[in-house]
From TrEMBL:
Pfam families referenced in this protein's UniProt entry, alphabetically: DUF997
Keywords: Membrane, Transmembrane, Transmembrane helix
Record field: transmembrane: 20-38, 58-81
Stated name of the protein: Sodium:pantothenate symporter
InterPro entries xref list: DUF997
Length: 94
């Protein structure tokens, strides 16, 4: 069996790392949403508490969760993601 002697493009390593970070953010968002939606929303409707006219489970899972995840994504992209030149290596030499 012949081994591939080509070097792996370092951009793939960066892309894989950033994809895993994105997957982690999706999992955090789902846990946040699921915890508040089913943790607080599983009570009878008569026992709901309301914030700004929304049921508390909806307010925390959808509204607060969206704000927090937006801020978290901005912070992660600003500090952990790196800019990668997507130009072709051969094309850049022209």
């Amino acid at each position: 069996m012949k081994r591939d002697s080509k070097k792996v493009d370092p951009r793939y390593k960066i892309a894989n790392r950033e994809a895993l970070i994105g997957l982690g953010l999706v999992i955090v968002n789902f846990i946040w949403w699921f915890s508040f939606a089913y943790g607080m929303g599983s009570k009878p409707v008569d026992e709901y508490s309301y914030i700004f006219g929304f049921p508390a489970w909806f307010f925390y899972s959808c509204i607060v969760g969206t704000v927090i995840m937006t801020i978290l994504v901005i912070v992660v992209v600003k500090f952990w993601f790196v800019e990668v030149d997507l130009g072709d290596e051969e094309g850049d030499k022209e």
